[in-house]
Design goal:
It is a single chain. With 506 residues, the protein is an alpha+beta fold. It folds into 3 domains: 17-287, 2-Layer Sandwich (BirA Bifunctional Protein, domain 2), CATH 3.30.930.10; 304-409, Rossmann fold (3-Layer(aba) Sandwich); 425-503, Translation Initiation Factor IF3 (2-Layer Sandwich). The chain has 14 helices and 27 strands. Helices cover 34% and strands 28% of the residues. It binds zinc ion (ZN).
Length: 506
C-alpha cells in the first residue's frame, strides 16, 4: 500500500524556498520552460489566471475613464535617445532589431541580411513611442486629460531569469496619461496606485504597503515613482505595481504641447503606470503551501472541480447525470460579477486526481458519489484548509452558500498573508539590531532573515548604497501614510524625520 507523502511538493518551503517555487509552478501545470532562454510558455491553467487578472483590472481602469489602444512593438532607436535618463536606465536590457531579412549562406544556413538604416528596439516600455502619437493627438486643453492603456508584451533582456518573476519577455499593461497641470497628473499617479492597491489586496489577497521610491529606485526619467510592495513567504519584498509621475520630461522629449484656455502654448504633464505577469509569481509565493498553489477565488482559473466517484457503469451513468445537472446549476450562479467557473474531472485515477487539483490550487474540490446522491449531498474540501478536512453539504445548502464560502476563502487568504507580514515587520532603531535582523542565522539558508525593517533614514543616497552593499537590502519605499517621527538614520546616525521600509527584494 502506498503511503501518503508528507507534502505534495518536494522540497518544502522551509527546506529550499526557491526550489519549492520552481516545483510548485511545474506541479500546478501553469507554465513550461521555453526553448528561448528567459521566455515563458504559459499553459492554460496559468493563462486563465492571467486572463482573470486582465479582465478584473481592465474593468477597474475603465471605471476611472481609461481607454485601451495599441502601439507598435518596435521603437526607433532615436526615440529612446530622446530622454537621457530613460535611455540610460534601459540601455543594458534592450533587444535590438538590426536586419529585416534572411539569406541562404554558403553552408546552407541562414544569415541576417538587409541591414536597417535605423535599428529598432523591441519595446522595454512604451513612453517614447506612445509620446510620438500623443504629440499628434493633443493640441488643446480640450483634449486633456488623455487616458490610455495597452495590454501587451515587453522585452527586457535579463541574464538571471525566474519564471513569472523575472523573464526577458513578459506580459503587462502600461497606462499612459497626459494632463494640463502638474496637480492633475499627480492626482492620476496616486489614483492608479489606489487602483493597484485595491486590486492586489481585494482580488489577489496580497497585503501591500503603499509608498514612494527613493531617487535611486525611481523609474528612469520619472520625477516620482509610487509603488506597492508585498511580503512573500521567504520574507522578501515583491513590487506589485508602480505608478510614475513623469513631470514634463517625456512631454518635452516627445513634443506633447497644448494650447491653454488663455491661448498660450505649454508642455503637458504625463504619467505612466504598469503591472505585469509578475503578479502571478506574487500569488504563488504569498499563498502557496507545501502542497502547491492556492488560488484566490476571485481570480482563480476555476472556482471548483466536481469529482464524480463510481465503481461500475451503472453508477457512472447515475453519478455523471447528477454531476452534469449540478454543474449546469452552478454555472448559473454569479460569484463577484462573474459566472462560477466549474471543472469536471471524471478520470478514475484514484487519489492522484484529488492531488492534481490540490497542487493546482483550485479553491474547492467537490466529490460526488452514489451515496452522496442518494442523500442529495456533496462532499466538499477547501484548499485553504487541511486536505483531510472534508465536509458534507446538502446540495441546496452548498449551491446557496457557494459565494459566501468563496468569499470566506478569499478573506482567509488575505488575513493569513496580513498576519505573516505583520509578524515579520519590525521597527528597528540600532545598527546592531538592523544588521542582525538581515543576517541569516544559518549561512546555508540565506533566505531566512528578518523581513521588513521599519527604520530611519537620513535621505542620503550614500547611506542607502552602503546598506545595499553590506546586506543586499534596499529601501523598498517611503510609506505614503507615514507619521512624521524624529529619529536617527540607521546607517550614519544623522537626524531623520520618518521611517522607511528596508527589505531584501525580488
Ligand atoms: Zn544616513
Amino acid at each position: 500500500m502506498a503511503t501518503q507523502p508528507k507534502s505534495a511538493i518536494t522540497p518544502t518551503r522551509t527546506e529550499d524556498y526557491s526550489e519549492w517555487y520552481q516545483q510548485v509552478v511545474k506541479a500546478s501545470d501553469m507554465a513550461d520552460r521555453s526553448p528561448v532562454r528567459g521566455c515563458m510558455v504559459i499553459k492554460p491553467w496559468g493563462y486563465a489566471l492571467w486572463e482573470n487578472i486582465v479582465r478584473e483590472l481592465d474593468d477597474l481602469f475603465k471605471a476611472t475613464g481609461v481607454k485601451n489602444a495599441y502601439f507598435p512593438l518596435f521603437i526607433p532607436l532615436s526615440f529612446l535617445e530622446k530622454e537621457a535618463e530613460h535611455v540610460e536606465g534601459f540601455a543594458k536590457e534592450c533587444a535590438v532589431v538590426t536586419h529585416h531579412r534572411l539569406e541562404k549562406n554558403a553552408a546552407g544556413g541562414l544569415t541576417p541580411a538587409g541591414e536597417l538604416a535605423e535599428p529598432l528596439v523591441v519595446r522595454p516600455t512604451s513612453e517614447t513611442i506612445i509620446g510620438d502619437s500623443f504629440a499628434k493627438w493633443v493640441s488643446s486643453y480640450r483634449d486633456l486629460p488623455l487616458l490610455i492603456n495597452q495590454w501587451v508584451n515587453v522585452v527586457r533582456w535579463e541574464m538571471r531569469t525566474r519564471i513569472f518573476l523575472r523573464t526577458s519577455e513578459f506580459l503587462w499593461q502600461e497606462g499612459h496619461t497626459v494632463h494640463a497641470t502638474a496637480e492633475d497628473a499627480l492626482e492620476r499617479t496616486r489614483l492608479m496606485l489606489d487602483v493597484y492597491t485595491r486590486f492586489v489586496q481585494d482580488y489577489l489577497g496580497m497585503p501591500v504597503i503603499k509608498g514612494r521610491k527613493t531617487a535611486s529606485e525611481r523609474f528612469p526619467g520619472a520625477v516620482d515613482t509610487l509603488c506597492i510592495e508585498a511580503m512573500m513567504q521567504d520574507r522578501k519584498a515583491l513590487q506589485a505595481g508602480t505608478s510614475h509621475f513623469l513631470g514634463q520630461n517625456f512631454a518635452k522629449a516627445s513634443g506633447i504641447k497644448f494650447q491653454t484656455a488663455e491661448e498660450k502654448e505649454e508642455f503637458a504633464w504625463t504619467t505612466s503606470w504598469g503591472t505585469s505577469t509578475r503578479m502571478i509569481g506574487g500569488v504563488i509565493m504569498t499563498h502557496g503551501d507545501d502542497d502547491g498553489v492556492i488560488m484566490p477565488p476571485r481570480v482563480s482559473p476555476a472556482h471548483l472541480v466536481l469529482l464524480p466517484i463510481f465503481r461500475n457503469d451503472d453508477e457512472r451513468t447515475k453519478v455523471m447525470e447528477y454531476t452534469a445537472s449540478l454543474a449546469a446549476e452552478l454555472k448559473e450562479i454569479y460569484y463577484h460579477h462573474a459566472r462560477v467557473r466549474v471543472e469536471i474531472d471524471e478520470r478514475s485515477i484514484g487519489g492522484a486526481r484529488g492531488w492534481e487539483w490540490i497542487k493546482k490550487g483550485i479553491p474547492l474540490r467537490v466529490e460526488i458519489g452514489p451515496r452522496d446522491i442518494s442523500e442529495n449531498a456533496v462532499f466538499v474540501a477547501r484548499r485553504d484548509m487541511d486536505h483531510r478536512q472534508k465536509k458534507s453539504f446538502q446540495r441546496e445548502v452548498f449551491t446557496g452558500g457557494l459565494c459566501d464560502l468563496l468569499d470566506e476563502i478569499q478573506g482567509n487568504l488575505f488575513q493569513r498573508a496580513r498576519a505573516f507580514t505583520d509578524d515579520h515587520t519590525r521597527t528597528i532603531d540600532t545598527p546592531e539590531d538592523f544588521y542582525g535582523f538581515f543576517t541569516p542565522d544559518n549561512l546555508d539558508r540565506p533566505e531566512i532573515h528578518g523581513g521588513f525593517a521599519m527604520s530611519h533614514w537620513c535621505g542620503d543616497a550614500s547611506c542607502e548604497a552602503k546598506i545595499k552593499e553590506d546586506l543586499t537590502v534596499t529601501i523598498r519605499s517611503i510609506p505614503l501614510d507615514n507619521a512624521p517621527e524624529k529619529g536617527r538614520c540607521i546607517c550614519c546616525g544623522k537626524p531623520s524625520g520618518e521611517r522607511v521600509v528596508f527589505a531584501k527584494a525580488y
